[in-house]
Design a protein that fits this description.
- This protein is an alpha+beta fold and 351 residues long.
- The chain has two domains: 235 residues, no CATH class; 75 residues, Immunoglobulin-like (Sandwich).
- 27% of the residues lie in helices and 19% in strands.
- It has nine helices and twelve strands.
- It has a four-stranded antiparallel β-sheet, with no helix packed on it. A three-stranded antiparallel β-sheet has the order 3-4-5, with no helix packed on it. It has a three-stranded antiparallel β-sheet with strand order 6-7-10, with no helix packed on it.
- The N and C termini lie close together (11 Å).
């Protein structure tokens, strides 16, 4: 068992950081805050620009599901069956009359915010293939959280008044499984384009290069980043885009960079480590979780594809999570304290 665990620990960095060129982030070492953000800008800013037409073909490398269909984050139901799926090329928009008509090219960071300027206009890191109708409903509204939606998509994405403190306008809320993806996309955008971000216009931005985001947005993005950690989908997409654009999203390769850049600039409380533990690792049938908090916590378990495979409550004391029916491979366990909004993560090998 010790040999197995040692092997797992040795290969884990390779699994999670495959295809990062040797020395790619050397210039970022030892830096924090604005200095780290600028160092990352210098590393990732220069890249191969795409044409808008080329994106249709690029999506077949960057956003393909295991079944060969388009990975549409606005219609996907992780671990379930979406109401519709799209075939590459033949289902491109065109006109749409409602959900399920066709897919198009969604600028998750709306292009009107940067006046349709290049190279942002065709940067794959923030452009996703999504349902045309949902894309149209989202428009150029900011991402946010909604408690009283005016409209809800078939997969649960919502449009309505913001429930996030500090902003009262209309926002679009994606499903939980893709909130971290989009947060890290936004961190990439204000880093890769640090040299022009002050020229952009949006309520999510602060008008400067650092922290670059308005306070309500930064607090929200940091929350989403914590609650939805990097998935295998993001890792694969990062590698695919690198093969096309020849730059990377550092916040996927090094999730710790998020707090190292923005931790001191945010109003998020200092994150002390949660009094919880998970064992054994590797695990065969059950993951045991010791909850040392004085109240219940919640957990979310993800598979290698970033899909949610289990959710539940962890009472004070020892808890068991049954994993006997899950496929062997790397699992990500995220434990959340609902009172302090702190999280703790474990990467566990299912044998």
């Amino acid at each position: 068992m010790k040999k197995i665990l040692l092997y797992f620990l040795l290969i884990l960095p390779v699994v999670l950081q495959a295809q990062i060129p040797d020395g790619y982030y050397n210039a970022a070492q030892g830096k924090t805050g604005a200095a780290l953000k600028t160092a990352l800008f210098n590393i990732i800013h220069t890249h191969t620009e795409r044409t808008y037409t080329q994106l249709w073909t690029d999506f077949q490398s960057t956003d393909k599901k295991a079944n060969g269909k388009v990975w549409d984050i606005y219609s996907d139901v992780p671990g379930g069956n979406p109401d519709y799926e799209y075939t590459f090329i033949s289902d491109q928009c065109g006109n749409y009359s409602g959900e399920g008509s066709c897919y198009n090219r969604e600028h998750s960071f709306p292009k009107s915010w940067f006046n349709d300027a290049e190279p942002m206009y065709t940067d794959l890191f923030h452009i996703y293939p999504t349902d045309g109708y949902v894309n149209g409903k989202r428009g150029n509204y900011p991402y946010g959280e909604v408690t009283s939606p005016n409209w809800t998509s078939t997969n649960g994405s919502k449009l309505g008044p913001s429930a996030t403190a500090g902003y009262t306008g209309t926002v679009f809320e994606p499903i939980d499984e893709y909130k971290g993806d989009l947060a890290r996309t936004y961190f990439y955008m204000v880093t890769c384009y640090e040299n022009v971000v002050t020229q952009w216009n949006s309520d999510v931005l602060s008008g400067d290069t650092y922290p670059a985001f308005s306070q309500w947005t930064l607090t929200l993005l940091l929350k989403w980043n914590d609650e939805d950690p990097v998935s295998q989908k993001e890792i694969d997409r990062n590698n695919a885009i690198y093969s096309i654009q020849h730059n990377r999203n550092p916040y996927i390769d090094h999730p710790e960079y998020v707090d190292e850049v923005w931790g001191t600039a945010s109003a998020v409380p200092n994150k002390q480590e949660l009094s919880v533990s998970a064992y054994p690792n590797p695990a065969h049938r059950t993951i045991h979780v010791q909850n040392g908090l004085l109240h219940s916590a919640s957990y979310t378990l993800y598979n290698e594809m970033g899909q949610v495979i289990s959710r539940g409550t962890l009472d004070n004391g020892t808890n068991g999570i049954d994993i006997s029916n899950f496929t062997k491979g790397l699992l990500l366990l995220r434990i959340n304290d609902p009172q302090s909004h702190r999280t703790k993560q474990y990467k566990i090998l299912k044998m």
